[in-house]
Model the fold of this input.
Amino acid sequence: MFNRPGIASMSLGRPWIHDLPGKLMQAAAHGFEGIELFFDDLDCYAQRTFNGDHMEAARQTRRLCERLGMTIICLQPFSMYEGLIDRAESDRLINEKLPKWFTLARALGTDMIQVPSNFLGPDPTTGAPRTTGDRTVIVRDLQRLADLGAGAGFRFVYEALCWGDHVDTWEASWEVVRDVDRPNFGLCLDSFNIAGRVYADPASPTGKTPNAAADLAASLQRLRTANIDPAKIFYVQLVDGERLTAPLNEEHPFHVAGQPVRMNWSRNARLFPFEENRGGYLPILDIARVFFEDLGFRGWVSLELFSRTLADPDPFTPAEHARRGIESYYKMGRVLQWDGQVEKNTVSIPECLAEVTSPVQHHL
Done:
């Protein structure tokens, strides 16, 4: 198996500014083979084009991806689920939301749903916790999800967010996946969230934690020796982060009251790997070497970027981010000497779509 380039639909432009079909076409034109589909993109497409009919939007999205030769890697994010203290809400998500997501995912032609670690946070009024860190509860919730998915033919991929309430490191997410112990429940390893937790501190003047290099090195050594079966890694994400010119405090323009600092940073200042000229500073290559050389991962490599630049209404925004992303992916492949990589300098959209777009050229 060779690595294949994917990108998140949200990483090509904000859904309420840039339409989903245009973003998919730009991704395909630049050489991406897969897409992580965000529900917000599907929702905006449904509202704009199909009077809110999500099923019709899903069917049309699948048809377009098939014509473009693209795979829908997953539908995401099925969020704010595991470890809820409000068990009635947990049941509602399982009994009402999940069946709808199964229906949408089936219409999209994907068998995978992504679950980020819960970051619901405390009640904004009372400050009371709304999630529990009790591993037994978290694992039981996710086993319930996996078992329902298995019966319907779906897989789930779990990702630790570096601002998660209780699961905020790769170690914690792997322990959860291991304890869930279901063949259809796997792991997503994300370079940004790994470095964002133990290496980066956007609230610090240095942009780093006090022992950044040593702590990351120790974490990566644990990853090397964790005996993770590569088959349990359903896909990986590669993305960098921007070193801010000022600490992200209450005066910073990225600050949003009530949200974790790392979340505010993530939503505004991610970068593609090798974009040091834009402020990238996380040791992404070190992390990638562990993914591909030590763990032996091969499969979908997705670039999940969130950035303030995605809100630019310029119609060329999706094309520009697709260009930056694929150049980053190919450079990673060259540096790590991936087998089977073919770099595409010019990719034409199929003739059936020529009326809505045109070939895109990019230089590597």
Remarks:
- Residues 4-361 form a domain with the TIM Barrel fold (CATH 3.20.20.150).
- Residues 354-364 have pLDDT under 50 and may be disordered.
- The first strand starts at residue 4 and ends at 8.
- The chain is about 40% helix and 15% strand.
